[in-house]
Amino acid sequence: MNRIFNFSAGPCTLPYSALEEAHAEFLDYQGKGMSLIEMSHRSKEYDAVHMEAMDLVRRLYGLPDNYKVLFLGGGATLQFAMVPMNLMAPGQSCDFTLTGAWAKKAYADAKKIGEVNVVFDGKDDSFMSLPDPASLQANPSAAYFHMTSNETIGGVQWKDFPDTGDVPLVCDMSSDFVSRKIPVEKFGLIYAGAQKNAGPAGASIVIIREDLLARSSDNLPAYLSYATHAPKDSMYNTPPVFPIYMMMKTLQWLEKEGGLEAATRMANERAGLIYGAMAANADFYKCPVQESARSNMNIVWRLPSEDLEKQFVAEALDAGMSGLKGHRSVGGCRASVYNAMPVAGAKALADFMGEFAQKNG
Ligand SMILES: *Cc1c(COP(=O)(O)O)cnc(C)c1O
Fold first, then answer.
1. Which CATH number fits domain 260-360: 3.40.50.150, 3.90.1150.10, 3.90.650.10, 3.30.390.10?
2. Cα 331 from Cα 320, distance rounded (Å)
3. Cβ of 75 below 6 Å from ligand 1
4. Does this model's pTM top 0.90?
5. pLDDT tens track for 219-230
């Protein structure tokens, strides 16, 4: 098999070892005569998978005891609604940073639940830069302060997080989850869809500080309440067993690679190679994002014309690199270089960018 370098933004490339292990175990899980995905989610085999996946999130982030890990369905998108439904009481407001397409989606849902104060709006700079976190101030009465750590479409990433005092900091980390070390104790709640760094689509991860569970109203429908899932370790109903199993395999791989320290180092290496190829051919490739806000996960750039961009994407595919077309809403090119993208993949892309610029510049 000729495995290509897959730069897709999500679902995305996964560690080959995780795929191989799942392949080998798929038909007959641990000699039980059936697949894991045919077993009861109450079986001891599945329970071990579920708890190990949760524990891996804990170990990788070094979570303090007063944080709970939840696995839910509905993607990160369901969290756009669950966060305000659970954390914001009637009559309360929350604070939002508008940094791009995903923050705006989260904001649109929060506005349906309560009042939202916009603390930062990047629209004057077309969402191509980020403010200094120290310049941001949470409203003392806000139920929480929401941010999006990495904008998957725009290609901006916060390098630091604001200090919001007693106002819980809530963060959508979908596209840079487990990709770097973060000061977890700064956050009240972190959420992420699994399919960008942690596994396949179908599961999302919520890390919630336990005191916030008291905010979930008894009037919420059961599934929509964090307080339903937390005491049951996300086994209140049938969890998405196959995505969680693949998440376990993916996170086991990451732990073996060296955890978040290794993830940070590899992300810096991959991004350095690709931004470096742009800098070396600066007349040809233009990154629209302000240098200090450039993402290590989703790297965006333009070529001199849309025709050249099309040609670039097509020739890259012939050379064994897929998924380089920019998001349909913004055009251009985008390389998503999540944890499982080998540094060799970023090197191959950087080399290709150099050659393409030489030939067509
Ligand atoms: C992909 C993505 C989402 C949406 O995730 P789903 O799991 O598809 O609902 C939300 N936020 C960010 C930052 C994303 O990259």
1. 3.90.1150.10
2. 21
3. yes
4. yes
5. 999 999 999 999
